[in-house]
User: What shape does this take?
Amino acid sequence: MRINYLSRQDIKIILHYLGYIMIGIGVILLVPILIDLCYLENRYFIGLIPPAISIGLGFLFVEMFKQYDKLKFKHSMFISSVAWLWAGFVGAIIMMLILDISFIDAFFENISAWTGSGLTMFSDVESLPMSILFLRSLEQWIGGLGVVIIFINLLIKPGTSAFKLYKSEARDDRIRPNIKNTLNKTIQIYLIYTLFGIILYLLAGLPLFDSINLTFTTISTGGMSIKNANVGFYNNNIVYLITMVLMLLGATSFTVHYNLVKTKGKSIIKDIQFQAIILSIIISGILIAAITHMAPMNVIFHIVSAVTTTGANIASSSELASWAPASLIIIMLLMVMGGSSGSTVGAVKTIRVITFLRGINLTVTNVIAPKRVVNTKIANKTFNEREIKEASSYIAVYLMFLIVSWIIMTFYTNDPINSLFDVTSTIGNVGLSTGMINGSLATLPKIMLIFLMWIGRLEIIPILLTIQLGFRTFDQSLKLAKRKFRRIINLR
Assistant: This one.
C-alpha cells in the first residue's frame, strides 16, 4: 500500500538530509562577517548567532538520523521546499537582530534575495551596513544556482540521493553523466563568469565592492542592488552593456555554456532557447520603440532585464509605472516567458513556451487532418504527448496563481495595471516594479508575495506536493491522536 503522508521514518530521513543543507546555509551566512571586519562596522557579530544555530542543528540532525538515508522523491521535494524557507528564516533573524525590523519585512527581504526576485522592503538601501548589502548579494549568488544544488555537491556523496535532490529544484539537465560531475562543471562555469563580470566592472571604473556585488546579483539574474537607483546609479553605458551581457549569460543554459568551447561558439547560436530570447528582445524592442519615444538604451536594458528575469533597472519605479500600458504588457509577457531552462532564471522558461505553442499547432493540425500525431520535434529533440501536456499544465497552474494573486493585490492597492505588473514580476522572480511593492504594503499581501517568490523559484510542483504531504500528515496525526484518546477513555 502506498503511504501518502509522512511517517516518523520519513521525517527522520528528511531531517537527516536537511541537516546537511542547514550546515551549508549556516556556513554561507557567516561570510559577511569578513565585510563587517573589513569596513570596521562591528555590527554583524550578533548576526553570527542564527548561522551558528543552523550549523549546530544541522550537525545534530545529520548525526542523530544518519541511519535513515533511503531517500525517495517525496522526501527530496519536501527537503527542497523547506530548505529555501529555512535559508530565508535564518537570514531574516540576522536582519532582525542587526537592523531592528519586523520579521515579515526581514523574511520578505531574504526570500527575495535567495530566490533571485530582487524586490526589496527598504526605501534607502544605501543606508544599510556594508555587511548586510553583501549578505543580500551573496544570497542571490548562491540562490542563482540553487540552495540545495550547492550543498549537495559539497556535502552529500554522489548517487541516487544526490540525483533526487538535484531534480527537486526543478533541474534535469546533465552536462556530464554523473550528477556530481555535472554539478562540479556547473559551479566551475558559474565561478568563471562571476570572475569575468568582476573584472569587466573593474575595468569600467567601478569600485571593487560594487563590482563584486553587481556581478553577484547580475550573473545570478537576481537584480537586487546596493544602490537606490539600481544600475541606473552609475549612469554609464559601458556598465549597462556589461550588465546586459551578464544577464544574458545567466539566462542561458549551463549545458550550452559547457559546449561553447567544444563547438567554437556554435552551441549558443544553435540553441533554440537562446534564439527565442534574442528574437523576443528584437521584436519587443521594435514594438516598444514604436509605441514610445524613450532612449534606446532605456528600452533594451529593461527588455533584457525582463526576459532574463533579472529585474535590474536604470529607470525608477515611478518612471516604469509611467510607461505606456501597451509597453508594460509587453514587458509582462517577457517576465512570464523568462529565459532558458537549466540556467539561473525564474518564470515559465522559454522551452515550455515553445513546447506549448508547438502543442497548439499539433492540436490544430490533428483537428484539420486527423492522423493522430502525438509527437513534435523542437531543435532535433522529440517531445511526446506527455511532455506537451506537462508544459501546458504547468503554464495553466502558473497563470492560475498569477491571476488569483493579482485579484488579491488589486484589492489592497486599487491599481489593477500596476498590481498585475508587480505580481507578474514576483511569481517570475524578476524584480522589476512599478512601486506597488514596498515596506508600507499590508502584511497579508506581503505574505502572499513571499509565497509567490517561493513557488516561482521551485516551479510550483514541489511546493504543492509539500503542502499536500503536510496536510495529509497533519490529518493522519489527528486520526492517531483520536484513536489514542478513545483507547484511554475505554480503559477508564
Observations:
- The CA atoms of residues 132 and 277 lie 34 Å apart.
- The mean pLDDT is 88.
- The chain has one domain: 8-343+453-468.
